[in-house]
Structures are given as structure tokens and as C-alpha cells.
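This section describes the prediction task in plain terms. A model, or a person checking by hand, is given the sequence of a single protein chain and must write out its three-dimensional structure as a string of C-alpha cells. No templates, partner chains or ligands are provided. The sample shown here is typical of the held-out split.
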Amino acid sequence: MMKNRKLLWISILVAWMTLPGCDYNRFDEPLAEETETLAPTTTIRDLKGSYITGGTVIRNEVIVVGKVISSDREGNIYKSLFIQDATGGIEVKVASSGLYNFYREGDMVALKCKGLKLGAYAENISIGAVSVDSKYENDYIPFPVMENYIVKGKKEAPVEPLTLTIPELQKKYSNMLIALHDVQFLESELALNYADAEHKTTQNRTLVDRNNNRLVVRTSGYARFAGSKIAQGSGTIVGILSYFNTTAQLTIISLEDRKSARLNSSHLAESRMP
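The expected answer:
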């Protein structure tokens, strides 16, 4: 036994002496982000088209692939991830905040729909988990199994918003990133903030174009910019379109980046806008 122990220690010493030199003051390089490529079996438009009143459980291997168009970093989007392909957009309900840490704007994702359920609230179609509460057509995907359904692919450039006018808005554009040019907030609202940050109350403001066409801008009281004064000029605003029954509404993602309300100092009221 003593002889075996001696041989073991000699083997360990030889192995240690032959190891390559290591710099213990250097941190490891970060691992490359693992991605997976999945081919779509259908489009987002056709997936949403399979919805029926009461909700639709997806029982087959259905996969849609799209780009992330949302970020919950500023707090105006909550427990939701919005993805978009060439045919449309859809809200994916996930029981977590801070989703921007996992899925960033421009990331390609494959949504594996088997076992999930299409549901609607006020005619706005989303996809999520099967709800145990019959009052709701679907529920939030539990965070621990989120990546079983939402598979991240490669990072690409963010989606360019679809340019529309207020009269052109239709439900087929719901949950898509859009841009509206030559618009402003109602002059009567210019002294207001986006929402009630003190009482954390969601509030609506109103965009208007030169022909007095109007669109609701809805902002959560929990948004970081809820207490900011609404943009004062006219110009371009970018956000995610949704519907509450027949009422179109816009959700601003952030005031700080390319998704902001890019309104300039010249106010349309100076042009005698009605």
C-alpha cells in the first residue's frame, strides 16, 4: 500500500510540472452566447389567424420566427415580449420583469408554440400559458420554463418601424412597431405628463395630425418617464400599436433612444392645425 501511495504522489507531481503556465490574474474570456437556429413552420399572421373565441391551445409542433421589437427596461412594457416577422407581430406573455436582459431589440427568436395558448383581451391577441382561471383566455409563461418556448437566435439590427398615418391604422398592424410622421400631442394636453407617476396610474394622451385624426398614447404609471412632460413639438413618434376593442393605441418603448417621441420644436398649432 505504501508503495502504491508513493507512485500516486509521483504521478501527481509529474502531471503538475507538465501543466502549461497559467496567468491567474487574467479573467476568462466571456463565453460566446449560445444560439439556436429553428425554421418557422408558419407565420405570425397565420398563427394569430388560428385564434377562436375562448382561446386556442396549440397542440402541434408550431414554430414562428421573428425579431424582438420591445424592451421592458423603461417600465412601459410589463411581463410581455413583442416579436414581429414580415407578416405581423404578437405579444408573448412571460411571468418576469427584466426581459430585456434576455431578449434585446433586434434579437431573432423562435417561438415554439406547442403547449401554449392563444388568447385575447379586449380583442388584442397574445400567446401565453394555459390559464387555470377561466376568466382569462391565457396566462403568463412561467419564468423557469421560458427558454423552453422562446429560443434566442442571432442578434440582428433592430426592426425598422412601419411608417403609417393615423387613418391607415388597422388591426392587421397590431403588435407591430410603427412610426407616425407629422403628429403632435393635443395642445390642451401639453402641460401634462405622460402618466401619473406619483400614484402609479396608467393614463392616456392624444396624438393628432394635421387633419385632426387622433390616436391614443397609453403610458403606465410605472414607466420611468411617466412623470415627464409630454413632447411639446411636432414630428415623428415611434411605438408599438395595439387595440383595445376597436380603439387603436400606441405604446412608447423609451424616450431616450430611436424608439422615442422624436418631436421637434416647431408645433403644428403654429400652422393653425385644428
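For orientation: Residues 3 and 9 are 10 Å apart (CA to CA).
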